[in-house]
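yo

u said u wanted the structure for the complex thing, so here. seqs first:
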Amino acid sequence: MNALNPGGRYDEAAAIAPVRVAVLTISDTRDEESDTSGHLLAERVAGAGHALADKAIVPDDVEAIRAQIRGWTRSGEVDAIVTTGGTGLTGRDVTPEAIEPMFDKRIEGFSVVFHLVSYQSIGLSTLQSRALAGIIDGVFVFCLPGSNGAVRDGWDKVIAPQLDSRHRPCNLVEIMPRLAER
Amino acid sequence: MIRLTREPFDPGEALNAFCSQRAATGAVASFVGLARGTGASGPALELEAYPGFTDREIERFVAKAVERFDLQDAGVVHRIGPIGAGEAIVLVMTAAPHRRAAFEACDYLMDYLKSRAPLWKREFGPDGGRWVEPTEGDLADLARWA
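structre next:
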């Protein structure tokens, strides 16, 4: 097996169990018309057979990001959140600073796998993003960079297969009922 | 008018069509982006789109430009697929009563198309293809309009 080919397959006989996904764009400059990567995520979520639970845009501001994320994780209406933007290295990029302290558990492998995939696309430029994921209040939270390329790599190649209940040998959906257990 | 095309197009022909029947227009600005060659054989670059999504997104942004600059009309023709050196990649056209709005809107639309439009660009060099993200310069250009 190629080290960068994850393998896995889909149980085509089964129906997908839809997941309720909220999409958050984190940017100082984007509005609804210019939020291409947010639209792209919303399109991919619905196209995969999931429910788009909500979609919002917040500025690169720690408190604004936390308030939106917490609102969703405590709503009981969202199973997973995908954010786009604010993962870079500049002073304005604060998505990891906002979200990481909120994690009940961090999914270390997400960053690793995202960088493997992204490295194949854009080479060492992948160093300039800090994609991350974790669990907050029993809700999966994935943080992708703001570019369309990163959204395509992150959603199509990493998140989508893992949020698909038909994916074998494992997926994140089958453990969702147990995320909040004590 | 938004057109995504896999075939080479003639920017002059498209611009002539855009300029016709415009009694109320005082200014049309246009920009043509060409594929810069690297000297290697084969296509200079390849653009991928999500059919049905990419055109809708560009349409949405063009409507924003029309509103922001009070344009009478705007058009975009964009190549997708493999593109040879010297071929036109993109044509942006804007029509307004006066030139300033037409120039600025053209610049604005190009900055969007370069950095934010849902098009995935792969450049080909001597050591194969590589996906290209917007550069810091592209993003700084786009930030001028915030």
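The interface with chain A takes residues 50, 53, 57, 60-61, 63-64, 112, 116-120, 130-134, 142-143, 146 of chain B (CB under 8 Å). The domain at 2-15+24-143 of chain B is CATH 3.90.1170.40 (Aldehyde Oxidoreductase; domain 3).
cya
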